[in-house]
Each structure stands twice: as structure tokens, then as C-alpha cells.
Design a protein that fits this description.
This protein is mostly helical. The protein contains five helices and no strands. The relative contact order is 0.17. The C terminus is likely disordered.
């Protein structure tokens, strides 16, 4: 059941992420009235995908410390996806708050920054659902240089103290 929900939420997140980017890019070329009618397209989807994402993230992170939340929640993602998520968050911040000032307007005057904002939530939802679908491969393949199994985020073996094997799991250094 978890996998079915995760696949469904991942697809909806991908659609929402794509819609956010298309509307954001289109808003640069359209008039100021463009965003007023398109907001109901992307914002309700956040609530549809976010609630299952919270439950799935809780399932991924229940055995980890709070400070390792994002490492635990996204540990099934490849390193490029993890880094892309943070780059996307940086772009959302830039487009919503910095870009309007560079263009000589306030952040609320143009819909472009507001239309990219849901992309942050859709990207996290996509990453968490991808992670829960692929976390088994990451968790099972973790071992130290001496061959002992180690916990998912451990850097050293709890049994012998040896460092984690560099090719352990998907070798993503999150």
C-alpha cells in the first residue's frame, strides 16, 4: 500500500513541479493579469501531495535524530537529486524574493515569483516519495570496510570502528 501511495504522490508531484515551472516561465512573457487565474491550478495540488509526503517522511525518519531529518528522508535519492533539490530551493527563494527587487518591483507585484513557490513543496514531495521507493537498496547495501552491516547514516562501523565502505549502497555522500 505504501508503494502505491508513493508512486501516485510522486507522479502528482512531478506534474505539479512541471506545471509550476511552465507557469513561472510563461509569467515572464505574459501580462500582469496572467497569474491571477493560474494560481488555482498549482496551489491546491500542494495539499493533495503534502499530507501523504509528511506520513512517508515520518516513516523514513522515525529511527533518526531530528538533526538528520533531511539526510534520513532523502537517503534513497541519488546524490544529484539531493543536490538538485537544494538548488531548486535556492532558485525558488531567488525568484520569489530577490528577482523582483532586481527588476525594480516589489515581490507581490509580479506573479512569477508567486507561481514558482509551489515548486519547493512539489520537489520535496517528489524527493521523499522517490526515496521511500528506493531506500531498501540504500539501507541493505551499507557495510564497513571489514564487511559488517552498518546503519543507514553511519560513517563508521558500530562493531569494529572501521569507516563505511566507499562503494557502500549508491555511494551518494549526502
Amino acid at each position: 500500500m505504501t508503494r502505491i501511495v508513493a508512486y501516485l504522490v510522486m507522479v502528482l508531484s512531478a506534474i505539479g513541479l512541471l506545471a509550476s515551472f511552465v507557469l513561472h516561465i510563461t509569467s515572464f512573457y505574459a501580462g500582469p493579469e496572467f497569474g491571477k487565474h493560474e494560481i488555482p491550478i498549482v496551489f491546491p495540488g500542494i495539499f493533495i501531495v503534502w499530507l501523504p509526503t509528511i506520513f512517508l517522511a515520518t516513516k523514513l525518519t522515525c529511527d533518526f535524530k531530528q538533526r538528520d531529518f533531511w539526510k534520513a528522508a532523502l537517503r534513497g535519492c541519488p546524490a544529484w537529486m539531493y543536490k538538485s533539490l537544494w538548488i531548486l530551493w535556492g532558485y525558488v527563494f531567488f525568484a520569489a524574493f530577490v528577482l523582483p527587487f532586481l527588476r525594480g518591483s516589489n515581490p507581490g507585484a509580479s506573479p512569477s515569483g508567486f507561481l514558482i513557490f509551489p515548486a519547493a513543496f512539489y520537489s520535496v514531495s517528489f524527493g521523499v516519495t522517490y526515496s521511500i521507493l528506493h531506500v531498501d537498496r540504500f539501507d541493505e547495501g551499507r557495510h564497513c570496510l571489514n564487511g559488517h552491516r552498518i546503519s543507514p547514516l553511519a560513517k563508521f562501523c558500530e562493531e569494529c570502528g572501521a569507516p563505511a565502505a566507499p562503494d557502500s549502497a549508491n555511494s551518494s555522500s549526502i
